[in-house]
Amino acid sequence: MGELRTIVEAACPGAVIGEAERAGELTIEIANERLLEVARFVKGPPLSFVLLSDLTCADFPEDPRRFRLAYQLLSLESGARLRLRVWCPPGEEDRPEVDSVTPVWATADWHEREVYDMFGVRFRGHPDLARILMPLDWEGHPLRRDYPLGGEEVQFTDAV
Amino acid sequence: MGEGLPVAEEARSALEAARREGRPLTETERAIAGAEALTPQEALARTEAAEAADHRPGARRPMVINLGPQHPSTHGVLRLVTELDGEVVRDLHPVIGYLHTGIEKQCENKTYWQAITLVTRMDYLASYFNTHAYTMAVERLLGLEVPERAQYLRVVMSELNRLTSHLVWLGTSGLELGAITVFFYTYREREKALDLGEMIGGERMNTRYFQVGGCADDMPPGFERQLREFIAQMPARIDEYEEMLSQNPIWLDRTRGVGVLPADRLVDLGVTGPALRAAGVDLDLRKAAPYSGYEHFDFQVPLGVNGDAYDRYSVRVREMRESVRIIEQALDGMPEGRHIADDRKVVLPPRGELATSMEALIHHFKLVTEGFTVPEGEAYAAVESPRGELGCYVVADGSPKPRRVHMRDPSFVILQALRPMARGGYLADLITIIGSLDNVMGGVDR
To answer: Which of A44, A57, A36, A158 minimizes the C-alpha distance to A115?
Structure first.
């Protein structure tokens, strides 16, 4: 599986900053600002990961980089899977940002809206970055670890 | 930008939030704000005013109609902000989240084994598949081997679940197009299949029969006989459904050539499952990346040609026949052995041992109170659900609770294809397309 990393590295020098393999699942860590370039490359030949299965985020408040995005890719030709991992540091202003991959895989549209809604990660170049599951005027991002469970006000509490 | 409209409260605060962030409203926000602003009378008045302003004969402006969230033909609480020009859908914006219950957040606050109960409730028509993807991801993180008998039991119950899910889809999409009879036929069989689920798992729906390491219990006495009776009559029942629909001129008129997108566009939109296979793309995870022993079974992957609503119907009906075949083979070849892995650090000890073995009691107590820990790492396990690739992404941090559980639900992804499919078509076809995509809102909103 190490050869996958070599292929990506040869096409996008310096973009791959890490690699992990566990139980047959290969993960390649990509530098935040190089994501779009790598995404374009892995979608085309020779790797042809044409299907973006899933895109989601996990929150690590103890890490300064905090938000870790995972892109699950599937190749229809070989059935191989690959996971891209990108960190989105929130910075001083709590504005974690990364390039949107919607120009590469159209399916990323709603996935990125969900990550924005739930974690507050912003996707540069997304055509329509609105909240998707929560109401438009919701405050906060519910899947962040510091967002309390059951912290929202229950409707009709005063109507008992 | 929303100014000048009598903006409703939610839309107004969205506008204010956007202003604070120094950005304009996005397309969806604008569509929702516009729709929320109008009562039907106001919408009519606006259209009439626009018609009056534009004197060219036949000049019309689109009318914004809220389809849903409470609408009998939208499969649950799906809201579509639809711009209509007469009967033609000019544009539409799906608005989802009405069934959002924060299950993924809840999972982070439960132990691994408690979270199984929550994930069954995501795609409520395919609860076995939710638990299958989740338990597979956790097993992969634990490096836990599932006994072969448990894998076969999982295949049997998964395929039975595929049948019940397709039966709901067939019955309700018939209802939506006015073919009421087929609903009674499909629910007759569905009841029998649900009874089988109750026999083996204790519940008709949302069963937590799949556990980390295998299945909760072995087949109870009489289960196999009843299941064999069920699958023996199923092919004749499927013939009955086909007799009602496959040559039915109204059904053909309503479904042929409706909701077509080219195959590469479907892949780009992430569409999987019957909706993709109807367009001729041979992607079935049971074949492409076999799991749970699917490589041992002989079955076909039905494909369509045109990718229209009729092909999706035909693919699903043929899939039901294949499911029957798989169940039959699994029962015939059911290996001997345990129904769950023999790992006392993860799997509950057998109930009978609790009265006699101190050690079993301790294990039981530890597992139920504290749960088992999972070594740090991440895993993505995907199964072929009735609607396509259902994946579960689990991030473990070494504690007894998952750091992150995310479901890649096929309904959520498929719903994105609704807009390009329905744009420029008739409103009546929109209903056909929703039915043929078979999205379950519990899975979309999670």
So the answer is: A57
Closest chain A CA to residue B27: A128
Q: Does A23 contact chain B (CB < 8 Å)? A: yes
> Residue A152: exposed, middle, or buried by beta-carbon count in 10 A (0-12, 13-18, 19+)?
middle
In a domain, A41, yes or no: yes
What total number of domains does chain A contain? 1
pLDDT at B5: 40
Nearest chain A Cα distance for residue B97, angstroms:
4
Q: Report pTM.
A: 0.88
Q: Specify whether the CB–CB gap between A41 and A47 falls below 8 A.
A: yes
CA distance B389 to B351: 36
The set of residues, in sequence order, having a beta carbon less than 8 Å from that of A5 and lying 6+ positions away, is A16, A19, A26, A28
CB A17 within 8 A of CB A56: no
ipTM of model: 0.89
Domain of residue A106: give its range. 11-135
- List of domains in chain B: 9-95 (no CATH), 103-423 (1.10.645.10)
Q: Report the percentage of chain A scoring pLDDT > 90.
A: 34
The residue count for chain A:
160
Residues of B in contact with A110 (CB under 8 A): 412-413, 415-416
* Two structure tokens written together for B167: 């039966």
